[in-house]
Amino acid sequence: MTVTRVGWGIDAHRLDGPPPLKLGGVVVSDSVGVSATSDGDVLAHAVTDAVLGAAVAGDIGEHFPSDDSSSEGADSMMMLGHAVELCKAAGFSPMHVDVTVVAQEIRIAPYRDAVRSALAQALGIGADSASVKATSSDGLGFVGRGEGLVVVAVVTVGGDS
Asked: Is 104 helix (H, G, I), strand (E, B) or coil?
């Protein structure tokens, strides 16, 4: 019997670190960056947590603790790859991802196809199964003041477990 599971992830970071800003492994800004222990790829972090959640395999902080020096500057897409390996070890494979970037000034449209392609490759799915969207917070809160950004992600996995 085939089983389908859904995992949900969210991540937020301050926009006060050194450039560049990466989303899904793609540089989307050379003028701003985020504060983070790893390379700060907020999108990859949210998708990683969604994959781990669908596999019931913990969360990103469990696998890559921010107080562990080996996480310093870590490649977030590598973290996502690790989550996919754990998902497969649990008997599941990613089938679909849907991501929404919430940012006031960062524009996703020029990079959407590149981010979709990178996510699809990392998850082992077709680009037609990777959705990347964006919205603003219409000037509200820390996102609206340009102090940070948030990414939410939903991943569907399937398997025989």
From this structure: coil
Residue 120 identity (one-letter amino acid): A
pLDDT tens track for 54-101: 999 999 999 998 888 877 888 999 999 999 999 999 999 999 999 999
**Would the pTM of this model clear 0.85, i.e. be above it?**
yes
Alpha-carbon distance of 98 to 117, in angstroms, equals 13
Please return the burial class of 55, using the count of CB atoms within 10 Å of its CB with bins 0-12, 13-18 and 19+. Answer: buried
Long-range contact set of residues 133-141: C-beta below 8 Å, sequence gap at least 24: 133/98, 133/99, 133/100, 133/101, 133/108, 134/100, 134/101, 134/102, 134/103, 134/106, 134/107, 134/108, 134/109, 135/100, 135/101, 135/102, 136/102, 136/103, 136/104, 137/102, 137/104, 139/104
